[in-house]
Design brief:
307 residues, Alpha-Beta Plaits, globular, 13 strands, TIM Barrel, 21% strand, two-stranded antiparallel ribbon, alpha/beta
Amino acid sequence: MNSVTNIQKYSIHDGDGIRTTVFFKGCPLKCVWCHNPETQRFEKELQVDIPKCTGCGRCEAVCPTGAITMLEPTAEGRKSQLDRSKCIKCGKCVDACLGNYRVLVGREYSVDELVKICLQDQMFYEQSGGGVTLSGGEVMAMDSNYIRQLVKRLYREGVDVAIDTCGQAPYSNFEAILPYVHTWLYDIKAIDNEKHKRYIGTGNELILDNLKKIAKTGARIFIRIPTVKEVNGDTESMAAVIDFLKENDIRPAQVNLLPYHSTGSHKYGKLGRAYEAEELTAPSDEEMQSFVEQWEKAGFTNIKIGG
């Protein structure tokens, strides 16, 4: 299944120019600070904004499995309760909710459908030097034949394609689309493997190996570093990334240092999950600027904070 959570038009932060960014659902990593938790799991999910629930009971009435029950009224009003073990993601409660407080996350699109949507803004791509960015979740963990068809079709239409990836996928998936991809937005979250396992949920061996292989093809690469003070927001961690790139003769066209933020933390409750990154913080503005200077002193150019 190749499920999409969002198609964001007029995006200016996922590559060059004005872009359409397609967010696929499903990722092999489990970053504790993930600001798009609705893209982590491959299956559809029901997202419920319980605090806004008005207690009308329409969702309970239409649920075919008894997954929804209405709680006794409190000072905050009457609320619904969802037993996710019984939920079959049929979407009936979503249709019944008058306030649109329930959302079924994840929709399947054919290649033709996605191409048609992306081409609607081709004029903006041409005028701004933009295009389409495939993101996630993890686009490279989707069905490789589907993704190859998609990028090949966009390429033939003259659309600039960028891939935003964590790198945790078989190299054959990357190799299959290399001729059709203009830019790789490639995440490096930690060089220290044990730290990577702790905060990201898996080792980084495949991620770094894929980066080396892609770089050897001469691909255009933007290195993106989600910068978290407790994980990699220090000079030693930045030096480790710099050394890795130098040792493997990887010269990125751009480096983006992305300060940690918790703006997606409110989504976890809607998905029935706990946010596990409460103790994480962003480096200060002064620290972020010092990292830019550290990269520049090491001989790298086009270092940006954010974007």
